[in-house]
Structure formats: structure tokens, C-alpha cells
């Protein structure tokens, strides 16, 4: 299954599990991001991000350059602690 299919499946699943008002609020938030023009100042596909330091899953600060020295890097952002 490709990424598009996985995302569509996730969207359908969330539509069954998340209250409608919550989905509407998420939609309003996304629309606000679109209207803000944030994509004009964000990195695009294939562009290099500036160097940064972020905590890893254990809370240790990690330099992006250290990770990139080992190979490609994938960033995953967690909304909160569950």
C-alpha cells in the first residue's frame, strides 16, 4: 500500500473515531495555516533545512549535523506525551 492510500485510510479511520466538532476544529486550524501563507516560508521538497538541535525521544539534545553525518535523516514530530 502506498503513502497516499495509507493517508486516505487513516483519514477515514479518524473520521470514524474523532468527534465531528474536533474534526471541524482541526479543519479550521489547517485552513488558518493555508491562509497564513506558511508554505511560502517553509522548506520545500528537496530543499536543505537549516541546522538545528532538537530533543530525541529520550529527551537528549541532538544536532542535525551529527545525524546527517551518519546518513539521511527523517524528522517525526509528536504532538504530546501520551
What would you note in describing this structure?
The chain has 82 residues and is mainly alpha-helical. It has one domain (3-68). It is 45% helix and 7% strand. It contains three helices and two strands; from the N terminus they run ααββα. The chain has helices at 3-17, 20-36, 64-68, and strands at residues 53-55, 61-63. A two-stranded antiparallel sheet has the order 1-2. The longest helix has 17 residues, at 20-36. The protein is extended and about 45 Å long. The two termini are 28 Å apart.
Share in helix: 40-55%
Individual helix count: 3
**What's the overall average pLDDT, rounded?**
86
User: Between the first and last Cα atoms, what is the distance in angstroms?
Assistant: 28 Å
Along the chain, the helix and strand elements come as HHEEH
Label the overall shape: extended
**Largest pleated sheet:** 2 strands, antiparallel
**Strand order within the widest sheet?**
1-2
Unreliable stretches covering 5 or more consecutive residues: none
Beta-strand share of residues: 5-15%
What is the domain total for the residues? 1
- Overall SS class: mainly alpha
Count the beta strands.
2
What is the gyration radius calculated from CA atoms?
17 Å
Amino acid at each position: 500500500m502506498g503513502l497516499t492510500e495509507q493517508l486516505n485510510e487513516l483519514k477515514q479511520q479518524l473520521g470514524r473515531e474523532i468527534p465531528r466538532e474536533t474534526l471541524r476544529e482541526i479543519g479550521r486550524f489547517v485552513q488558518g495555516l493555508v491562509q497564513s501563507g506558511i508554505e511560502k516560508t517553509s522548506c520545500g521538497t528537496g530543499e536543505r533545512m537549516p541546522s538545528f538541535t532538537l530533543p530525541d525521544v529520550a529527551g537528549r539534545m541532538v544536532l542535525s549535523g551529527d545525524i546527517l553525518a551518519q546518513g539521511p535523516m527523517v524528522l517525526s514530530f509528536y504532538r504530546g506525551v501520551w
